[in-house]
Design brief:
The structure holds 2 protein chains of 2 kinds. Chain A is of the alpha+beta class. Chain A is built from 4 helices and 4 strands; from the N terminus they run αααββαββ. Classes of the chains: A alpha+beta, B alpha+beta.
Chain lengths: 201, 193
């Protein structure tokens, strides 16, 4: 078989070239689609973000202006006066809510039969704590000690301390007890005046 | 080889040129449009985040101002109600609460009044509340005293038991002696009334 090429221009593998061209065309087409898609997507996103930001900025400006307007109606001196008055009223209400009857109930349930209370002087200190000076008369030191233990066991009394003791003419033991009383706090907020205090933003 | 490529290029020029132009156009579009746009979006995201933070802060600020206004209004209303409906209106009202009502209550329960003093106190600085302080001494048995204190505490009149002392009488079998320090308050207006 004769193997010779008689053409004046040798041919090349056109199929490969066409395929490469097709691939290049596809690549360019892909790039175009990518670019167009990115432009559309980014434009939309940009518009949306700017709209959201603008809306938020506008709303923030409106809220700041409204807050300023509200604050203009709040006179600082007036607020301080109202706040001080509310504090004063609450202090008075606290004192009114303190139950002496409950205190007597506690003392009655803890008092042993051999001990009697001869004097009672409750005092409210600066921080609102009730400190009782209870003068008790008992036959023996054990009786007074039992009373002190019973007071602390109720958890309504703490820091029970016999401040002074002496023997009476009748031979009984007289003790002056110092007791810190912690009343039930469940009703402590009832009927109180709300205090005025602005939280800082 | 070079000749072949030149020939291929020459024969397929109709394809190569548009493809090259399209490729360059794509590169140009990316450099001039897509990339700057993506930077704009990043900036817009930053701005949107800042705006959202600013909005949250402004909301807090507004809520805080409104809460202060509401608290002031409520406190003012509560104080007004406390001054006018709970406390005696003036010194006369305070006196009638501690003088007549307490005396009537003690009498009803069989307590014997031994001693009474009344001291009106002017409002402290920055306060508008006057105070009528009463010291009273009663004699009676334990149950009467307990009932008296209970009724005083549960009475609608605003009387505060500031201090109390309970002591046995000097002689055996003598009644207990209750010394009470009571206070009631009333609003003193700026003209002193």
């Amino acid at each position: 078989m004769l193997r010779a090429n008689f053409s004046t221009r040798p041919f090349y593998n056109e199929r490969v070239v066409n395929l490469l061209l097709l691939l290049a065309a596809l690549l360019v087409f892909g790039l175009t689609v990518f670019n167009v898609g990115r432009i559309v997507f980014l434009s939309n996103q940009n518009t949306e973000l700017l709209a959201r930001a603008g809306e938020a900025e506008l709303r923030a400006r409106q809220l700041r202006a409204a807050a300023q307007q509200v604050r203009r109606t709040l006179d600082v001196k007036q607020i301080q006066t109202v706040s001080a008055s509310a504090h004063e009223a609450n202090t008075i209400i606290d004192r009114r809510l303190f139950s002496w009857t409950e205190l007597f109930n506690h003392l009655e349930t803890t008092l042993p039969p051999e001990v009697r209370i001869s004097a009672l002087r409750p005092n409210l200190d600066e921080s609102g704590r009730v400190v009782l000076a209870v003068t008790v008369v008992g036959r023996r030191v054990e009786d007074v000690d039992r009373f002190m233990g019973a007071l602390e066991a109720t958890r309504a009394f703490t820091g029970v301390l016999s401040r002074e003791e002496r023997t009476t003419e009748s031979g009984e033991l007289l003790a002056v007890l110092n007791v810190q009383y912690v009343p039930d706090q469940t009703t402590a907020t009832a009927g109180k005046v709300e205090t005025v205090q602005e939280k800082q933003p | 080889m070079r000749v072949a490529l030149a020939r291929i290029f020459a024969e397929k020029r109709a394809w190569f040129v548009p493809l090259a132009v399209a490729l360059l156009a794509n590169v140009a579009v990316y450099v001039l449009a897509v990339y700057p746009l993506s930077i704009k979006v990043r900036n817009a995201e930053t701005r949107e985040r800042a705006a959202a933070a600013e909005l949250a802060a402004a909301r807090n600020d507004h809520a805080s101002a409104q809460a202060a206004q509401t608290a002031r209004d409520r406190a003012t209303a509560a104080l007004s109600s406390f001054y006018t409906q709970v406390l005696p209106r003036d010194l006369t009202g305070a006196r009638s609460v501690t003088y007549l009502r307490v005396a009537q209550l003690a009498q009803k329960l069989g307590l014997r009044a031994q001693h009474r003093t009344y001291v009106p106190e002017k409002p402290e600085r920055e306060s508008s509340l006057g105070k009528l302080k009463t010291e009273m001494t009663f004699a009676g048995d334990y149950e009467e005293i307990r009932q008296f204190i209970y009724e005083l505490e549960t009475a609608p009149e605003f009387v505060v038991i500031e201090d109390m002392s309970l002591a046995e009488g000097g002689e055996p079998g003598a009644p207990l002696v209750l010394t009470l320090s009571l206070s009631t308050y009333y609003q003193v207006l700026s003209d002193g009334t």
